User: Fold this.
Amino acid sequence: MSGSTLADDLRPVDAFAASRRGRMSTWRLAWRNLWRNRRRTWLTAGGIAFAVWMLVFAMSMQDGSFGIMVDNSARLLTGHVQLQHSQFHDDPALENTLTGVSELTALANSQRGVDAVLPRAQAFALAAAGERSFGAQIVGVDFSREQTASSLPGMVVAGRYLQGPGEAFVGAALARNLGLAPGDELVLLGTALEGGVAATVAQVVGLFDTGQPAVDRAFLQIPLADFRAAWNLPDDQVHVLVLMLDNVSQSPPVVRALAGPGRRALEWADLMPEARQTIEMKKIGAQLFFAVIAIIVTFSVVNTFLMTVFERTPEFGMLMALGMRPGAIIRQLSGEAFWMCALGVLLGLALSGALVGWLSGVGLPLPADAGEMLARYNMPDRMFPEFSWPAALIATLVMFVGTQVATWISVLRIRHLQPVKALRALE
Assistant:
C-alpha cells in the first residue's frame, strides 16, 4: 500500500514556518498590488522622493553654509580650537598664561586635522597718538604664521601686514578715532606681568576692516617678540594657542586630545557663542519648514490610500467573506505603504546624493554682485554643500512613520466593513 500514512497525516504542523510563509506571501502580494495602478504609485512615490530630496538637499546646503560661516569666523580671530590656561576663558588676566609652549605646540601639531598652531599673547592697554587715546586689545602674534593661516592679514584696506619688529596692524575704526594713517607712530601703555609699566612705541604699517565694529575699533596686532619685551612675558609663555583645522567637524576629537591639567581646550562653539546661537536658531526654523513639508506629504499619502480603500472595497469584502480577518487586510495595506515609501525614499536619496556630490565638487555660484563683498572678507564665491547624513536618516524615518500613520488613518473603515455591503459595491 502506497501513499501517506496515518502517522504522516497526524504529523505536527510547524507553526513558525507557516507563519513565516504567510508573512512572505503578504509582502509579495503587497509589492504586486502596488503596480495595479502604476500611475498612482509613481505619483505618490515621486511625492515622497521630492520631499526626501528637498529635506536632504536643503539641510546639506545649510550645513555647508554653516561650515563656511564658522570657518570664516574662526580663521579671522578665534581659530577652530584654542588651548588656554584653565582660568583664562573666565578671567583673561595677564598672569593666566600657558607654560611649556614648545611642547604644547608639538602636541597640537601631532593631532590629526590640525593645519596650523598660532601662539598669541594679549592684554588690554591704552593706545595713544598725539592728544588722543583709546582703550584697545593688544595681541602679540607670530606674523609669519598668521599670514598663512589667518584671514585677518587679507583684510588690509591701507598699507600692509606686519613684516618685522616695531610695527602695528590696527583696526580701521580705531585708527580713525586716533587720527592714524600708515606710517604714523602709536604709543601703547599698559601694566606688565609683574605689575610694572608696559610701554612700547610702534609704527602703524597697515589698517584692516573686518566689517565687525567691535573688532575694528578696539583691536590691533604687534609682533609677539615686541609684546613679550614690553609686558615682560617669558619666551616660553603665551596666553592662547590658536589651532586652525582642515575641517570644523574635527574640533571635538582635537579638544579631547589636548585638554589636560592646568590647561583648557575650547572649540569654536565655546569661543563664538553668538555664531552657535545663530546656527541653532536657523536650524529650528528649518526644522519647522521641514515639518510642514512632511505633513503635506503625509496627507498626500492619506489621499492615495483613501482612494485605494474606496476602489478596492468590493475586493476587501470578498476576502472577508472568504474568511480573511480585517487585521490581515490592514497588514497587507501597510506592506503596500512600506514598499511605496521605500521606493520614494530610495529615489529621493539617490537624487539628493548625486546632486550634493556634484555640487560639493564644483560649488553653487553665488550672485555676481556679491563677489566683491565676498572677496573683501575672504569668503568663497560659491557654496559647497556637505551631505547631511542626519537629515537623510530623519527624512527616511519621518516618511516611513508618516506613510504608516496615513495608512492606518485610511483603513480604519475596514475594521467595521461588512462583507455583504462591500460586495454590493460591485452592482
Q: What stands out?
A: The longest strand covers residues 114-129. Residues 1-20 have pLDDT under 50 and may be disordered. DSSP finds 16 helices and 14 strands in the chain. The chain has two domains: 29-70+277-424, 93-238.
